[in-house]
Amino acid sequence: MPIDDILLEAEDKMKKAVDHLRQQFRTVRTGRASAGLVEHLKVDYYGTPTELRQLATITVPDPLLLVIKPFDPGSAAGIAKSIQASDLGITPTTDGKVIRLAIPPLSEERRKQLVHQIKETAEATRVALRNIRRDAIHHIDAEEKQKLASEDNARAARDEATKLVHAYEKEVGEVLEHKTKEVMEV
Asked: Which member of 34, 75, 110, 164 has the lowest number of beta carbons within 10 Å of its beta carbon?
């Protein structure tokens, strides 16, 4: 595989890792209501695990309330059951047609726990980025050993892989900082 392709593949994987981190952070509860909190929740819909966003509209009428209106009113009980079984720690109230989630404010201790949790998630993403770089460098070294790439090109490619990982680690730090501020906001 040409060195340029190795670097492009590594960059693509790094971008996906950071995008995955953003997706994970969307589900972390803050003191404010957000559709991202529940939209990826799996609901048993006629025996098939289905994402909540495919079964209902999710609105945020005020900062501490989520309203879920199922397309099929018969699925309201299953949606409420899935929310209750999730690790959100929020008890849904339902009138048979609409499900309401009152988002309680977070305690200072819970905020600190969430910050610790998101820092661990960010560190796992950084480790994944470094593993992607390691794999890319391994492929570059293999290309060099097979005489498919010159020593100078291989060195430049290794440097480029390192620059990529630093850029994406910086992006992870920015995403983490933003989410930490959001969680600690009272």
From this structure: 110
